[in-house]
Specification:
Blueprint lengths: L5 E5 L3 H9 L2 H21 L4 E8 L7 H24 L2 E6 L6 H13 L6 E9 L1 H14 L6 H6 L11 E4 L18 E4 L9 H12 L9
Parallel strand pairs: 1-2, 1-5, 2-4, 3-4, 5-6
Helix pairs in contact: 1-2, 2-3, 3-4
This protein binds 3-methylbut-3-enyl trihydrogen diphosphate (IPE) (2 copies) and magnesium ion.
Length: 224
């Protein structure tokens, strides 16, 4: 059975769910947050150590202002309400991506990272304003600036995922089969699961099913 350390998720399909069931994309984002809470709980139950959630890509700035503002308000409210609880559960929050949001949200995210830095039950990496291509370019720039040798180890040290093991599993919900600029380097050997359900409709049962399937996959890493 494969050990399971790190699950990464592209939480896609909120907008379509919201339009279909509530006549509003934003309502889909709100509902999607409930799935986030379910998956965090289940990850702890399943002794997963790292959960990386793609919440906002560098390309998502192309969306209407109204939707972007709603998403960040949702996150702001979530953090203000839940941070104490998250901390008590020994969960660490880390942001992947550059914090270029409102003053209040930047502050909250920095505060959450600092407050939970020593927590060790589960690390949640929130990919927010995250783009894998810019992450890679910046890593190469740092290597060049510091005149270090280009090799896998040095590159990984300069990625935002420094000290985080590569994902064992990538899940993308929402019936779309693409990576959308997510962890292009880190996913080189991950097991990929494309899920038809939209993110707000994704359940703990669906999650467990994927975990079980993953545990029985033969991972070769090039061997036979
Ligand atoms: C993913 O859901 C969540 C974010 C990008 C924040 P979408 O908003 O992309 O939902 P669809 O794909 O339009 O249904
Ligand atoms: C990927 O979903 C980003 C997040 C889930 C945050 P998108 O809905 O933005 O991806 P594309 O644009 O359809 O590829
Ligand atoms: Mg989408």
């Amino acid at each position: 059975m494969n050990p399971l350390n790190h699950v990464a998720i592209i939480m896609d399909g909120n907008g379509r769910w919201g339009l279909k069931y509530r006549n509003s994309r934003n309502e889909g984002h709100k509902e999607g947050l409930k799935t986030v809470e379910i998956i965090i709980k289940s990850s702890i139950k399943n002794k997963i150590k790292f959960l990386t959630l793609y919440a906002f890509s560098t390309e998502n700035w192309k969306r209407p202002k109204k939707e972007i503002n709603y998403l960040f308000k949702l996150l702001e409210n979530f953090l203000s309400r839940k941070l104490d609880d998250i901390h008590k559960q020994n969960i660490r929050i880390k942001v992947l991506g550059y914090k270029k949001f409102s003053k209040k949200l930047n502050f909250l995210l920095n505060f959450a990272e600092k407050k939970t830095i020593k927590n060790s039950k589960l690390q949640i990496n929130l990919a927010l304003n995250y783009g894998s291509k810019s992450e890679l370019i910046n890593a190469f720039k740092k290597i060049k600036r510091n005149k270090i040798k280009i090799n896998e180890k040095n590159l990984e040290k300069n990625l935002q995922t420094n000290n985080i093991p590569d994902p064992d599993i990538l899940i993308r919900t929402g019936n779309t089969k693409r990576l959308s600029n997510f962890l292009l380097w880190q996913l080189a050997y991950s097991e990929i699961f494309f899920e038809k359900k939209l993110w707000p409709a994704f359940t703990e049962k669906d999650y467990i099913k994927i975990i079980k399937e993953y545990k029985n996959v033969k991972r070769n890493f090039g061997r036979i």
